[in-house]
Amino acid sequence: MHHGPLDGLLIADFSRILAGPYATMLLADLGAEVIKVESPSGDDTRTWVPPARDGVSTYYLGINRNKRSIALDFGAEEDLRLAKELAARADIMIENFKPGGLRRFGLDYQTVSKRNPALIYASISGFGSGAGASLPGYDLLVQAASGLMSLTGDADGPPYRAGISVFDVMTGMHAAIGILAALNHRNATGAGQHVEVNLLSSALSALVNHTSAYVSGGVVPHRMGNAHPSLFPYEPLPTADKDLIVIAGNDGQFRKLCHELDLPELLDDPRFATNEARTHNRAALRPLLVSKLRERPADEWFKRLTAAGVPCGPINHVDGGVALAEELGLDPVITVDELPMIRNPITFSATRTRHDLPPPGLDEHGSQIRAWLKETTR
Fold this sequence. Notes:
Layout: E1 10-14, H1 19-29, E2 33-38, E3 52-53, E4 56-57, H2 58-61, E5 67-71, H3 77-89, E6 92-95, H4 109-115, E7 120-125, H5 139-146, H6 148-151, H7 166-189, E8 193-198, H8 199-206, H9 208-217, E9 234-238, E10 243-247, H10 251-260, H11 275-280, H12 282-293, H13 298-307, E11 312-313, H14 318-327, E12 333-336, E13 339-342, H15 366-373
Helix pairs in contact: 1-7, 5-8, 7-8
Pfam families: CoA_transf_3 (PF02515)
Protein name: Crotonobetainyl-CoA:carnitine CoA-transferase CaiB
Organism: Kibdelosporangium aridum
């Protein structure tokens, strides 16, 4: 059965925790066959509880569907031989050991590519393979070191981490992009290559306007709570009962907002005539908007402003976010062998994503994979 655009590709997944497994799950959803290689103790996220479902970490479950698991001990001669055989047969190998950590096992790119020159070998690290090679690659460290935490939280409060391991996820996506680009190169030339991504570089790229403010404008951004440095309004504003996200991303949206709030006089005020002026004069503009918003509850404003073309929305918990996606017909939840999961966010007009295999138990497919690897070698 044809599953998707990557159908027929074999990925040897030597990664664990989040960035690598997230990348390989995305690729598996697109049709690639992924063999997850784990140590005998298993991927660390198997033990990251609570929460859990039927005794299994939901952290692990969320990023490991559509894979088959084999547990290999690189210290055991036969297991190491099988690991090398898997790398020799794979189209793609992905790993997030410390840079150079697989060299002593003969599973580094230089060694593996001699036997499998068409291999696309992707390495994920925290701080690159140069001077930062020995630094541990934890998302929280990179949130701190990159500057993200300095941007998160109240202006007069302490720095905060983001609510998710945002740079692990982004680095996983960058790894997937790099792998797909290398596949295109291989299709044209027949040659594989080494793809490297690291959390800090991904973080600096993902900080977009903030890193651009520094490198292009000489400005070091700072914490502003929920405010935006270059737009206003673009933040939660209080209503009669709770906060509502209100956005005026351009002058037209601001005019619509003023009309719905019955504040036509603001349109003639030079302090608020342009986005730059509104941003500079937010301290004067904010209370004028809030005084009107407090007259009605958030849900009423949401319906009214949305109908008028003003971007706004509720501040949901995660359950509300899933419910909204369901309400909008996005079908966010799929069931894989009776396990509810969030579906792959990509849709295609000519191919499809798949959600066939539940996250595997440790070494669940070990016997099957071992038998296959012991067949006639390449």
